Amino acid sequence: MEKKRGKLLVIGFGPGAFEQITERARRAIEESEVIIGYNTYVDLIRGLLTTQEIVRTGMTEEVSRAQEAVRQAEIGRTVAVISSGDAGVYGMAGLIYEVLMEKNWTAETGVEVEVIPGISSINSCAALLGAPIMHDACTISLSDHLTPWDTIAKRVEAAAAADFVIALYNPRSGRRTRQIAETQRILLGHRSPETPVGLVKSAYRDRQQVVLTTLADMLEHEIGMLTTVIIGNSSTVVYDGLMITPRGYQRKYTLNSEEQRLRPSERLQVAAEPWSLSAKEEAGASGEAKSVQPDFPGPASYSSAGSSSPLEAAMEALQILEAKGIVSGGCAGSAPSAATNLSAPSMAANPNALFEVGVAPGIANKKFTARQMALLASIAGEQGEMEYTPHHQIILRIPGGDPEQVVAELKAEKLLVFPVGDVAQIKACDFCNLEKDGSIPVAEELNRVIGGLKTPKELKIGFNGCGMACYGAVLEDIGIVYRKGAYDLFLGGKTIGRNAHPAQPAAEGIAADQIIDTVERIFREYTDKAFPGERFHKFFKRVGTVAGFRHQEQPAVTLADAVCGD
């Protein structure tokens, strides 16, 4: 009996939403006997799975997934290897072929391979932002786990100098925090601080977030492994909450008039394109610098000191056309209004934006009233959501909400409102149902002084009102425990991960009139000197001393392999 030929289906399923998965990808999943993928990716397509065998692994297990896929195909099975986005863009397609190459595979005699394309992040995120990649664009991964950082930095430098729109993949993780800051520094050497930047997290998934900002301010926003960063070129503008990169049509066409100065037969002639290579060659052949026709000026060579950007060239062309009466009502010939100003980025609200805010009934009070809960439900409505968190807040998310109005309504109902993300948060206990209230004023004053302020990474300050510390203040980044009329201070806790550990005892018996100043000094030193995205416990270890308190090495923790395989 002839052995069945196995098949590898390398599938890119797009951003994650079912409607964004191509029909071929759906059929490939259905016809597969085995599905192999990263845990999160398997969960995203679970609704399409029926009786397939599932092989799922964690991060850094890409090679083992590829090897297992090849092994299963070699015994005659139809195997789907899944990637989000496009399997050929930082996905599994290349690795599958590399493993096959090591086995001297050939398409004629080996297992059958089909790579099924999907929508990559650069495309899905661009669609949410507007049209930022209408002109030449490139993708760069900032992960230096497999690629030397020096190589990545050279690519960023080259792309920045060549005025590419740049999509940054894998911009930041828990371990990699400095790469995005270094990338920003390189880009600012070539581009205006006001260059529009789009940050899209979890495109087309349940917790999608879209932020429009600038190159100068991009690090003020949350950026993580689920974020794609799209950086505009010198022509990119923000208009009505959308990020748009002109293709260059303004050079030859009038966009607000049906009548075009150039007939169709004239539009591709060299005379109409003085910026083209053909025009430069003609000028060189004649031995003289050919003057640019004033009707359609183009930028000089980008390497010259006096070069203008494509946007400046387009605006100059519009001015000339308006002076000739060909364009009317445009913004080139007069001071543009806020609605038509294309040269200055506008931070108008994006219709896809998600307003996110933390809400609590108080610093010490943990009890919401029925009226308060009803208000939260009313504000969230059908499209929004309320998420319970272990940080004594409810996170309220509202698509396209009016932030000022929402905050005003919440405060009117005596609710505390907090920013969400990389900010300082006071996590106080309930002070034994408000009965041990001696230190509540200090907790509330500490929240007033630094609560909600921007930090390099989210900073949790635990505050317990007695020596029992039953709310776990000593596990947080900074812990404060009220005991015998004074305050004990703990620094550098780590609450998550298999190597989690409590904070180190830093001081005992700090007086009430000194504790807030002490914590504020620690906070200021952290915000001033930490790397972007650097957690407090890592910062404390790196610098050795914070506000006079010295770091002590924790005993090494031996990590055993988990039974679950994660």
From TrEMBL:
Q: Which UniProt keywords are present, listed alphabetically? A: 4Fe-4S, Cobalamin biosynthesis, Iron, Iron-sulfur, Metal-binding, Methyltransferase, S-adenosyl-L-methionine, Transferase
Superkingdom of this protein's organism: Bacteria
Q: Which Gene3D superfamilies match?
A: Cobalt-precorrin-4 Transmethylase, Domain 1, Methyltransferase, Cobalt-precorrin-4 Transmethylase, Domain 2, Sulfite Reductase Hemoprotein, domain 1
Enumerate the spans annotated as Nitrite/sulphite reductase 4Fe-4S domain: 448-545
UniProt region (Disordered), positions on chain: 279-308
CDD domains found in the cross-reference section: Precorrin_3B_C17_MT (cd11646)
Q: Which residues cross the membrane?
A: none
- Which residues does the UniProt record annotate as the domain Tetrapyrrole methylase? 7-218
What is the name of this protein? Cobalt-precorrin-3B C(17)-methyltransferase
From the broadest rank down, the organism's phylogenetic lineage runs: Bacteria, Bacillati, Bacillota, Bacilli, Bacillales
